[in-house]
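Title: Comparing notes on inverse folding

I've been comparing how different people in this forum approach sequence design from structure. To keep things fair, I'm posting one structure and asking everyone to reply with a full sequence. Here's the target:
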């Protein structure tokens, strides 16, 4: 077998077994609208509607970021292609959770990809989701 056919076989095998590796992407996230620099931003990457945004422990990735000049930035790297949603909490008191009042209304800021709005409850995964196929930039404004 000559070298030309060997190269074609290697390319075919790589194409079959490595597509997810070749599809890994970065999500750059810019956050603004914080009302102060206290605490930290908690950023969750979800790939399932049943975890978004109320079950942060089920997120596929998580970042804690300091807030400076009422903005924050972070990135998730080497993320496989797919459907995702990002949720954000302005954890002003550094307790690692979204602080709510006695009937469950948030006292701290929150945000979501696509700037999906809360309507009588948290935003839906459908409203916040985006298809990741290549490197992506998101801008999320925190709501209070």
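Reply #1:
Here's my take.
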């Amino acid at each position: 077998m000559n070298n030309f056919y060997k190269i074609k076989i290697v390319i075919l095998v790589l194409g079959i077994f490595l597509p997810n590796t070749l599809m890994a992407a970065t999500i750059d996230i810019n956050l603004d609208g914080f009302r102060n620099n206290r605490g930290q931003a908690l950023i969750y990457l979800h790939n399932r509607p049943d975890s978004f945004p109320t079950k942060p422990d089920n997120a596929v990735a998580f970042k804690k970021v300091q807030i400076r000049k009422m903005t924050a930035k972070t990135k998730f790297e080497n993320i496989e292609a797919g459907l995702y949603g990002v949720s954000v909490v302005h954890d002003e008191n550094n307790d690692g959770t979204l602080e709510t009042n006695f009937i469950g209304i948030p006292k701290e800021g929150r945000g979501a990809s696509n700037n999906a709005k809360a309507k009588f409850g948290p935003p839906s995964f459908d409203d916040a989701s985006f298809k990741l196929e290549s490197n992506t930039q998101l801008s999320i404004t925190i709501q209070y």
